[in-house]
Each structure stands twice: as structure tokens, then as C-alpha cells.
Design goal:
Oligomer: single chain
Helix content: 40-55%
CATH topology of the largest domain: hpI Integrase, Chain A
Order of helices and strands: HHHHHHHEEEHHHHHH
CATH architecture of the largest domain: Orthogonal Bundle
Strand order of the largest sheet: 1-2-3
CATH superfamily of the largest domain: Intergrase catalytic core
Distance between the termini: 58 Å
Shape: elongated
């Protein structure tokens, strides 16, 4: 089974290096393929990829359904498996592709849930500004809504990535190409209070430049931030179905509602290789700061 795991790792390396997928997406692939290989070993008795048959893959889809997975989740897991078997075939690590005839249930095309601007303002105003933790949480929330950055990008920020004088933040993005994102006055003020009153007073090693720290003065994890955001939503009385990704989705919806063009929204969010950029690579771009000032709900506050 060491060879099996090595081939999965090689596939993930290719996705990271050549396709530049985000850490979250790579984690999903790793989880999907780990579950798939465990199923083949434990349920189908396969010890190598050459032993995997079309029937085994059909049984895997039925097993996923019996385990209570939604059609959307099954479709995603099947896509991971298909991509992996194509990798094996392309690199002459397998002679056949057992997924070639795989029939996957159509994913549910539900509209993405978003918060209204009023709900977003309520969420942003419910952090306790009398405590260091509350000040930190308010700064995180304001920055997430100001920029639309991912939680995985937020936790990688360093103090020097901020320029509060000029009002922007430097974000690494998912493909290692940094982008400069403007931030409005509410986010700038919340960050200034956090850095002055909280972050600068935390005694850490000289090499510890992470912007947001947990109670143990260590880097926050993605799971830790999600927990903080869910608790903030509960305090604000936001709908039970709230998820941290809704902040990012809500910002995109609010910008478009207020007249932002799709390409500027994609640039702000760090989305690359979209249809527009592929079809019209030399298309003139709107100035992001101008679009931000005109369309972001909190830019003029």
C-alpha cells in the first residue's frame, strides 16, 4: 500500500505545482482519495490500482449514497477519483481507466446563500470591543468582508502585509501570486485598534509576525477561525445555516448588486482563469480601487 499512497501524493503534487490549486481544494482531494483507497482495500480487496474494476467503482458510488452523502458530495468525490485515474493512465501507471463509464448523479444546483447588507452590518457590530478577543474578532470580520479573502488566506497574513496609511492589504492568494486589495475605513479603523491595543502588546518571538493570534499567542488555524465566525453569527442572531464562506459569497453578491463588473469582483476575490480572462486576455481592466470605492457597501462609511 506504500506504492498506492505514493501515487496519490504524486497526483496531489501535480495539482499543486501545475494547476496551483488552493490548500483547501488539495485537502479535499486528499480526503476523497484516502476514503476511496480505504474502500477499495477494505470492501473490494484491492491492493493495487490495476486490480480496480468498473464494478468496484460502481460499488463505491452506491456505498457513498448508502452512507448518506448528498448527490453534490458524491459528484465531487467521483470527480476526484476520475481525475486520479486519468493521472495514472497519463503517466503509464495503469493500463486502463475503470472510471471511463462511471455514471455520476447530477449535483444539486442550489443558489448560494448570502447575507443581506443589513445582516452583514449586524454581524460586524456584535463583537465585544471591551475585550482583546472581541477587538481581534471585529478586525478579522471587517477584513474578511472588506476584501473577500478566504479564511486560509487570512490566517497566513503577517503584520507587514498591512498598509493602513494607504489603506490596502497584500494577500498571497491561492496560486502564490500576491494581490493588493484596498480596504475601507471601517476595516482600517478596526485593524488599527487591534494592532495598537492588542497585537503590538503581545510578547512573541521576533520571528512571529502573524497578524491574528489565538489565546496561546500562536497562529490561528482555519478550524479555529471558522469556530470564531460561527460564534459571532450566533451572538448576532444570524440564521442557523450561516457558514464562514457566506461572508465571501455575500460580498461578491453585494458588489455586483451595486454595479461592479464581474472581472473586478473576480480580481478582488483572487479568482483566476475565469471564462472572461481566458476568452479576452487583453481586455482592459477597470481600476480595482475605483470599483471598490464606488461599489463596496462599507467603502464610504
Amino acid at each position: 500500500m506504500k506504492a498506492v499512497q505514493k501515487q496519490i501524493n504524486d497526483f496531489l503534487t501535480e495539482l499543486s505545482d501545475e494547476h496551483r490549486l488552493s490548500t483547501n481544494t488539495l485537502d479535499a482531494y486528499r480526503s476523497d482519495l484516502g476514503q476511496y483507497s480505504s474502500f477499495l482495500r477494505e470492501k473490494e480487496g484491492c491492493s493495487s490500482w490495476s486490480e480496480v474494476s468498473e464494478l468496484a467503482d460502481v460499488n463505491y458510488l452506491y456505498w457513498l449514497r448508502d452512507m448518506g452523502n448528498s448527490s453534490t458530495t458524491i459528484a465531487r468525490k467521483a470527480a476526484s477519483v476520475r481525475g486520479f485515474h486519468r493521472f495514472l493512465l497519463r503517466n503509464h501507471l495503469a493500463e486502463t481507466d475503470p472510471t471511463i463509464a462511471m455514471k455520476v448523479p447530477k449535483s444539486e444546483n442550489k443558489p448560494r446563500a448570502v447575507l443581506s447588507i443589513e445582516e452583514m452590518n449586524t454581524l460586524l457590530s456584535h463583537s465585544d470591543q471591551k475585550t482583546n478577543i472581541g477587538i481581534r474578532d471585529r478586525a478579522m470580520l471587517e477584513l474578511l468582508y472588506a476584501t473577500g479573502m478566504r479564511v486560509s488566506e487570512l490566517i497566513r497574513l503577517n503584520v507587514q502585509d498591512l498598509d493602513l496609511t494607504l489603506g490596502f492589504v497584500r494577500c498571497g492568494g491561492t496560486s502564490r501570486n500576491e494581490r493588493i486589495i484596498p480596504i475601507g475605513e471601517p476595516a482600517r479603523q478596526a485593524l488599527e485598534v487591534y494592532i495598537t491595543e492588542v497585537r503590538n502588546k503581545v510578547k512573541t518571538g521576533q520571528d512571529q509576525q502573524t497578524l491574528f493570534l489565538n489565546r496561546q499567542k500562536k497562529e490561528l488555524t482555519r478550524q479555529g477561525v471558522w469556530k470564531i465566525l460561527k460564534q459571532s453569527a450566533e451572538r448576532a442572531g444570524i440564521r442557523p445555516s450561516f457558514s464562514p464562506e457566506m461572508i465571501r459569497q455575500s460580498l461578491a453578491a453585494h458588489l455586483i448588486e451595486r454595479g461592479a463588473d464581474f472581472e473586478s469582483v473576480d480580481e478582488l476575490m483572487g479568482r483566476e482563469n475565469t471564462y472572461v480572462t481566458r476568452r479576452f486576455p487583453d481586455r482592459p481592466k477597470h481600476q480595482l480601487k475605483e470599483v471598490y470605492s464606488r461599489c463596496h457597501p462599507r467603502a464610504a462609511l
